[in-house]
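Changelog excerpt

This revision adds worked examples to the README so contributors can see how folded entries look when concatenated. The first example is reproduced verbatim below.
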Amino acid sequence: MNFKPIAMVDLRGAYLAQRDEIDTAVKRVLDSGWYILGKECEAFEHAFADWCGAGHAIGVGNGTDAITIALKALDIGDRDAVFTVSHTAVATVAAVEQAGATPVLVDIDPETFTIDPEKLEEAIASCRMATPRAVIVVHLYGQPCAIPAIAEICKRHGMFLIEDCAQAHGARLNGKPVGSFGDIASYSFYPTKNLGAFGDGGAVTTSDAALAQRARALRQYGWTERYISDLPGANTRLDEIQAAMLAIRLTMLDTELARRREIAAHYDAALSGILQTPLVRKGADHAYHLYVIRHARRDELAAALKAAAIGTGIHYPVPIHLQKAYAGRIACGPSGLGETERASREVLSLPMHPFLSDADITRIVAQIARWHGG
């Protein structure tokens, strides 16, 4: 039987949903003759900061740079330890190293896949190779971390709290947006994200005016006035075309988040008796950047769905500490990373994007039920 393919993501759908407005915005930028750090970027930064519940947003070139700029804005670098997870995109750890700091990897809670506060406490207490300076929490898949517990740990140890919100646009905990709990936060606008650009892009958000000023300087050579560098900065700027398109996409984000949550509810109802569906932390509004299930026979299930023309993904197949670039040279907490390694063997991402139809979802869950029954 020939099936119409169901993709994990639908990047073109994001364009088609707002094509006329996006085309108009792009033409406006092209006609303006101003393409870097102009009115479009400034307008988007204000709109995004308001949407995030932050005082300031600083557009940068990508999500990795956003983390690096956040670290440098906090003056974190050589001989400083930054604690984060191995169960994340490599970008999180790559950014720490780009800032010149030492990453220390902490295990995850097996139910939420986010950093385990108890393991974090152990890792900080046992750290000897560098001075503990910051924690980067990753709100993975759109699931808020245990922020209150982690914020308390950071306060007790005199450490900064950085939120990696690359997968969590729209997630909340106890009614408060992620990204507004810590000292500073980073976002990615990579095309697959809940708020995706049509190319690369990212942002740093903070409600600390001094940090925002440093981040703005750092993204452009450390300039506080043109051609005068007060800080050793970088070249990582959100261009006008991407900013204009992101501003259009932002107007639809709440509607698209509602659809993601509706799709997740359909999945939950149909699959909870078959495999491990995402647990939502108490008090949390999950943003469902990804809908990640867990099963010991993950690879078999993925193969069955592929045979039925249903796309899946694995986020992430190899933990950072086991990858060739990092194996044997990156520190981890004293309890090891056993839960991280188990998760990497069992997680599977099902199709999740706001352009899935109800018929698509019905077909996906039917195929999983058929596989499970077989």
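The second example, added in the same revision:
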Amino acid sequence: LLHKIRQKFEITGLISLLFGGLFTLSFYEAKVGVNVLFFTSMMIILLMVVMKQFELTLKKGTYLYYVGAMLAALSTMLTASGNLQFMNFIVILCLLNLSLLHQLHTSEGWDVLNYLSKMFGIIIWGIVSIGMPFIDGLNFLKRTKLFRNDKTRNIFVGAMISVPILWVIIILLSQADMIFGDMTEVLIERIFSSNLIFIIFMTLFGFFSCYCILCGAAIQTGRKEIERKRGAASIATTFILLITLLYILFCGLQIVYLFSNGIFTLPEDYTFAEYARRGFFELLAVAMINVALMLIVNTFFEENRFLRNLLTIMTVCTYILIGSATYRMILYIGAYHLTFLRLFVLLSLLILSLILAGVIISVYHKSFPLFRYCVAVVAGCYLTFSFAKPDYFIASYLEEHKAILSAEDAAYLTYDLSLDAAPLVLPLLADSNRWSEEAKAGTEASGSTYSEDGRMVELQSVDFYSTAYYDLINRESFDRDVRGYNLSIDKSTEYAEQYPIRYHKQ
């Protein structure tokens, strides 16, 4: 396959050049919007063309990766959240990477390690292949009729030799005559403008990225998988047993302190919220380590009935840890309200729980497609989260749980949340009955202060935050061409026009 890709440079090179041109057309001096959906669809079409050109039949599962990538791209057009847009980019690239992997390899019998090594292998081998476009392009030119002609080839070589000489002479003549120098400067600025250079750079970047990724993916095809020798089950049994005994003791304490809600009392220096905040991330890290340990044991050690039973007990303990972490986060949210990060952490706990279920199933059933199950879980949960517009949900939560809002709440609503929340934030800013007298008067604006969750904020009046929010809507909606169309930003502009006191459309 690699030989075919390199030999047919006229096809692969043209597709890569088209990829670079579409990349530049989509994103040069453009804001994020419908261009992401357009470019993703073009990438998928180009991948399908590549498969057809090199006589590779599209597999059924490949379409699922394409659908997931398109949904992530659609979500990017519908949201104004920078966090979601960034994660959508990552999801799109990962799913298209996996589509190549699925298309070019027979993955029967692969475990999670095989999939991960191949995924990163495409990127690594793509970087290693950086010289191939130059070599293949040169060989292609040598094969063409135009460059087989000695006279044509000599003219081309002479032109290349003249470039540095002409450059030196132009510099000298520009210094010798001011009129010639001014004329030359204007001419060079127009020919070699920063815009033109950046367009060329983006196009070449897209060209090399496409060509090298195709080569990197092809390099791995046909390679024989190294059969791994599994370690003795007694080794895994020993360390899993010791770890499981520790977890049984710890999980008992969790049930006593948190889930029983008061059989024993907490230490005097802790409130429930402080206790929750202190241990949450540690519990999350331990739960993730447990999942990793189970995958390692399942991959690198021999099967054993007693070991499977230990892993089952560890699974139960891990679920208790995840439950404890979830409960701590709920306590923390109850004390300090909802934020994007806290909501995303709850999503991560849900995903971790579902992955853990797949891991324990794979312990008992080796044929279970664990990696594909994990991809489906992560993609499905994340895409649901992305389409749900979490910033809107966070604003709704704050509106429902606080009757009177403070200047700090105004700062969070207008600075930390994206314009996805504008349909709720704009009416709140306009409703004077929802704000404390201190927030309306700006008497809280006595320099910097620490918020309840430890963030340092500069408190101002509600009017100040309202003006800043309308300015943000203006900036985001200003100078957006059709490529940068974003439904959430467009809707925020419509809502802002319903509250025109501080809104001046540019």
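Reviewer comment on example two: Strands lie at 448-450, 456-458. The radius of gyration is 30 Å.
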